[in-house]
Design goal:
Blueprint (H helix, E strand, L loop, with lengths): L4 H15 L9 H8 L3 H13 L3 E4 L5 E4 L8 H9 L23 H17 L2 H5 L2 E4 L2 E4 L8
Antiparallel strand pairs: 1-2, 3-4
Helix pairs in contact: 1-3, 1-4
Length: 152
């Protein structure tokens, strides 16, 4: 279960938009691209997948951009992963070997299975709201928030 660059960028972009939920109607895609250091054209393709999967809503025009289709507490990280990389990304062999399964397990299959299942549950139970509480944006960069208020 290794995620594509598109998936990681999709999670970051969705998180970025969620920070402004209720404060701004639509976030311009070029703002997200600049803030997160993601190619505008690559980000546009990622956001199209999220829009097709009812995670985001897009609006064209001078005041257009992107926003969440639902409240941050109603969007799980698992939903974003599935929208971009598909369900198979969560069930694939950790070594990337074709045909890995219970009948033909790879050397890590038996150890990886329970860990993969635990990660699946973490992603299913973690919403954008959950991660909003642990991060902040400073100077247009997403960074960790520690107990002392400083960033890393």
């Amino acid at each position: 279960m290794l995620f594509s660059k598109a998936c990681i960028y999709g999670i970051r972009a969705t998180f970025y938009v969620s920070l402004y939920q209720g404060k701004r109607e639509f976030i311009p895609i070029n703002e997200i691209s600049d803030a997160l250091g993601i190619s505008f054209h690559f980000l546009t393709k990622i956001l199209q997948k999220l829009t097709r999967n009812s995670i985001m809503i897009s609006y064209r025009g001078p005041k257009g951009g992107i926003t969440l289709a639902r409240a941050p507490e109603d969007i799980s990280i698992l939903e974003i992963i599935k929208a971009i990389d598909g369900e198979e990304s969560l069930n694939s062999c950790i070594l990337g070997l074709p045909g890995c399964g219970t009948e033909r397990p790879c050397p890590l299959h038996d150890e990886w299975g329970p860990k993969r299942d635990a990660l699946y549950q973490i992603f299913a139970n973690t919403t954008l709201k959950n991660i909003n509480e642990k991060f902040l944006i400073e100077n247009f960069r997403i960074s960790w928030k520690d107990n002392g208020g400083s960033t890393h």
